[in-house]
Design a protein that fits this description.
Elements: H1 14-39, H2 44-56, H3 61-68, H4 72-84, E1 88-93, E2 96-104, H5 106-115, H6 118-126, H7 131-149
Antiparallel strand pairs: 1-2
């Protein structure tokens, strides 16, 4: 959030103020995540890859790219770097021996956990809300996420930002 700017004190409709506040939240979380990744010697994309593999398990590069919202060629450099650093392995896919699945190594799992330290940052902010405010906020967020994702994708509020 821009210093000195309080979402509730901005001008505009309530919907416009909510959109601006959500943008501020997104930027703050992204900045925290990128800073944590950088301190670990990882790019934000590499850290997101590790987080996704930690949460969802082994998967093909194409599935990982879909979850990241990037193309396979775009993530290929990050995959190579993570393999070289010993954080990810490329194993044969038992369902299709022409394909490879990406899996975390123990070092990769450690880094995924270390880069997930953005969660306390967010939980601390959410903790400033009362229980009733948290319930109402979650209900609203789930609706917003569903609308943003469209009818073909299930809502993912509550899952990692990665």
């Amino acid at each position: 959030m821009r210093k000195g700017t309080v979402p509730g004190k901005r001008s505009g409709t309530t919907a416009e103020r909510i959109a601006e506040a959500l943008s501020d939240v997104s930027q703050a979380v992204e900045r925290q995540f990128a800073n944590t990744a950088d301190r670990r010697g990882l790019s934000a994309t590499q850290a997101r890859m590790l987080t996704i593999l930690s949460v969802h398990g082994s998967m093909r590069a194409s599935d990982l790219a879909d979850r990241l919202g990037l193309s396979v060629p775009t993530i290929s450099d990050s995959v190579r770097v993570c393999v070289r650093k010993g954080l990810v392995t490329r194993d044969l896919d038992t369902n299709d021996t022409r394909a490879r699945k990406l899996s975390l190594t123990p070092a990769g799992r450690y880094e995924a956990n270390a880069t997930a330290r953005w969660r306390p940052f967010v939980l601390g902010a959410v903790g400033t809300l009362s229980s009733a405010e948290q319930d109402a906020f979650l209900e609203g967020l789930v609706k917003i996420v569903a609308a943003l994702q469209g009818p073909d994708e299930p809502p993912t509020a509550g899952s990692s930002p990665a």
